[in-house]
């Protein structure tokens, strides 16, 4: 399957490098996008995804036969940008690669420092893409941070589901709404039981971030 993918992606004009093990994947040079199988001979792709997120600013698309909802949820929570279940169409995969690559390049191209946003009990470091509640680093994934950043930008106003999906995922193919719900739930969990800000669900519309008075 990997050989077939290399041929198809190369014909589409992409520069492709293949490694077969988790160890080699973590030792490989950074890439714009990583297609990551979960069933690796020397480890689990979920852990590889976690390690890649700590080391590189790259896009990660999980490409796997594991199609159960719990597998999708776990993959997205570990920081994957997209999750594609085998079998898949090459046109769709290319569109997803293009969407993830655009976001990765845009993130790398941000040169200007943006500083921090301070809310009561919450500090958001826009340059280093991290959020701290009190003295606790929330350990947000790239998508969770982007979601928090967008909600903060629309603080106390409704941010529609369509706006969030378009600005954060920007997928050429429609991103399932369940993907958004998973990330909101994960962000709420990391904010904790007594959060400095509250993410409200506005049924039929989207989400709203309530800031302390």
């Amino acid at each position: 399957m990997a050989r077939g993918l290399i041929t198809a992606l190369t014909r589409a004009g992409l520069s492709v490098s293949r490694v077969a093990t988790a160890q080699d994947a973590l030792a490989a040079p950074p890439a714009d996008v990583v297609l990551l199988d979960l069933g690796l001979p020397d480890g689990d792709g979920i852990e590889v995804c976690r390690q890649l997120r700590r080391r590189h600013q790259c896009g990660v698309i999980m490409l796997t036969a594991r199609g159960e909802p719990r597998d999708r949820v776990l993959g997205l929570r570990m920081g994957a940008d997209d999750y594609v279940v085998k079998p898949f169409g090459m046109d769709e995969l290319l569109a997803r690669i293009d969407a993830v690559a655009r976001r990765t390049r845009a993130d790398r191209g941000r040169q200007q420092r943006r500083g921090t946003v301070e809310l009561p009990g919450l500090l958001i470091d826009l340059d280093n893409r991290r959020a701290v509640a009190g003295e606790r680093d929330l350990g947000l994934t790239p998508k969770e941070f982007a979601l928090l950043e967008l909600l903060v930008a629309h603080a106390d106003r409704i941010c529609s589901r369509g706006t969030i999906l378009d600005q954060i995922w920007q997928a050429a193919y429609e991103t399932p709404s369940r993907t958004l719900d998973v990330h909101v739930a994960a962000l709420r969990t990391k904010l904790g039981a007594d959060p400095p800000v509250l993410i409200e669900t506005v049924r039929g519309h989207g989400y709203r971030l309530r800031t302390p008075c």
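The first strand starts at residue 33 and ends at 36. Residues 22 and 43 are 6 Å apart (CA to CA).
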